Amino acid sequence: MNMRLQINKDFINLISPYTKKEYLALEEKLLAEGCTEPIITWNGYIIDGMTRYEICLRHDIPYNVKEMRFSCKEAAYAFVCKKQLLRRDLTFETRKFLIGMQYEAEKYLHSTHPRGYSSWHSRADNLSLDGVEYRESPTRHTTAQRIADENQVTHATVQKYAIYTKALLTIGSKYPEILPKILAGRLKLSHQRVVELSKLSPTDLRRADFGAEQKPYHIQMNQAHRGRPPKNSSAAPPIPARPSVKDMPAFDPDAPAVELSLTVPSWTSSIKRAQKNIDAEVVSDRAKEKLREVLGELIDTAAEILMLIKEE
Description:
The protein is mainly alpha-helical. The protein contains 15 helices and five strands. It has helices spanning about 10, 20-35, 50-60, 75-85, 90-110, 115-120, 125, 140-150, 155-175, 180-185, 190-200, 200-205, 215-225, 255-275, 285-310; strands spanning about 40, 45-50, 65, 130, 130-135. Helix 2 crosses helix 3, helix 5 packs antiparallel against helix 8 and helix 5 (about 90-110) crosses helix 9 (about 155-175). The radius of gyration is 25 Å and the shape is globular.
């Protein structure tokens, strides 16, 4: 008989839910092949395999349980985040949240539970699970850099995502229903907007307009599609009028992507040309730092766009 497991709400936000299509595919596979992967738990709480567990329970499919041994919840958080970040179906919001959460968990674990941090990395049964590996990071900077390397961003971006994560957790503590919508990408909020919302009281937060940033975009889209451009008048005005929205051509959804595709090669050419001419031994530290900063921003922006247009 299957043992009943517990679900902790603190882990639910770290585990991205399946889409309907993914859920049905997993259900079909479990019914046909059984549950071949164990449900991962910590202290009896599910930290990986919640969807498998729910399906198995509903269809009375036998499953195995693997209990992980962590010294504290922060180690479990870091494990869950790292395992979830292996998934390709994450929204950009969830990805940012998980990266920030992993960094905060490991940073806290290293600074307040050094023995637990070392134990977490040294236990043979916890070192690897489905491709998840851990290496000790002695400082905050190297922790951020390692997480950055794993997720193809800069260490400054990891620290920025940590601010985003803490702000989202604050919002979730005041307005729990809104957090899943943000993580699912149904509400598009900038980093700054998330931070601003986190400072509101619970009452003001529930009154806030979370869709405000999307309204101007939709208005422009609707106006661009509305009506045809006016026909030219026989009598031309003495002073050319500034083009209005009505004069704009129909919206082309491919235009931004095509424009960027034509622009990026010139950037690549400039970077390659500079690469040949830069002499690292004579360039000043100030110039190097500025170049690292702008290239880091370029890498992060490119990663965000790649996530936006990734294959579904």
